Task: inverse folding
């Protein structure tokens, strides 16, 4: 081989190596820049008393990846760095129990999302109602039976449901099933006694907006795990976003939900 040909071969090899290195560096840079951070505080129900020793867990709703912060300090402060950008739900474990979020958090590339959270415990009645159907909901693909249709109101496209056990909340995903009926939907609105409500307990008969016709006697089943699954199956309460720590960048609200412990 001539010296000239050898030189060309070395140059080609060098250029190929440089291209590979460049691609790897570009990929690494893309992975680095497509991340953000989350900082914030966890408070008691009053929204001002810090909760030390609490742990927040985030779950990416697309990948399912779970991230966990170190326990909050005396001021209730937490921090999670280097999160992949995307939408997350969250749950919190504190001395008072486990708390599911009622909102989603958006992590934005090269930004720090700031989140302030209050922990709102359920009352005993609500906690017991959730435990009634939690086990069945977790193992039964058909959902946990909540109740039955007692009236169909076609003019308003709604149904009156007798809640046999457990509880039903706005935002829950349900299945209505009968001899001629079989469909899924989210509960977007409920009324009881002419007033809007956020949840209904056993023995109550809320009126629920529906997307299809139903028949008296159709069963109503809770299918909440078919939506964004909760962190904890039988939580002690709700973790609610509150203000007070600056701009809440990237917050995505999934519904107009409030702590059920404060609902009359």
Result:
């Amino acid at each position: 081989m001539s010296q000239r040909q050898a030189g060309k071969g070395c140059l080609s090899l060098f250029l190929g190596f440089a291209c590979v290195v460049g691609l790897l560096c570009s990929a690494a840079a893309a992975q680095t820049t497509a991340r953000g951070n989350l900082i914030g505080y966890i408070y008691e129900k009053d929204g001002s008393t810090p909760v030390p020793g609490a742990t927040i867990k985030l779950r990416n709703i697309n990948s399912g990846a779970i991230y966990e912060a170190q326990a909050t300090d005396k001021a209730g402060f937490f921090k999670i760095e280097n999160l992949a950008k995307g939408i997350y739900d969250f749950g919190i474990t504190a001395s008072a129990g486990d708390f599911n979020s009622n909102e989603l958090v958006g992590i934005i590339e090269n930004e720090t999302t700031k989140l302030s959270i209050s922990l709102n415990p359920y009352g005993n009645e609500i906690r017991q109602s959730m435990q009634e159907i939690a086990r069945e909901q977790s193992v039964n693909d058909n959902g946990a039976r909540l109740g039955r249709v007692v009236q169909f109101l076609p003019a308003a496209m709604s149904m009156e449901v007798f809640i046999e056990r457990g509880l039903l909340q706005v935002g829950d995903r349900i299945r209505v099933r009968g001899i001629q009926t079989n469909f899924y939907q989210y509960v977007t609105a409920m009324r009881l006694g002419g007033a809007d409500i956020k949840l209904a307990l056993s023995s109550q008969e809320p009126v629920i907006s529906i997307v299809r016709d139903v028949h008296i006697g159709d069963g109503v089943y809770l299918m909440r795990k078919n939506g964004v699954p909760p962190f904890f199956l039988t939580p002690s309460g709700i973790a609610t976003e509150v203000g007070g720590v600056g701009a809440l960048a990237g917050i995505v609200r999934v519904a107009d939900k409030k702590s059920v412990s404060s609902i009359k």
User: Anything to note?
Assistant: The two ends are 90 Å apart (CA to CA). The mean pLDDT is 80.
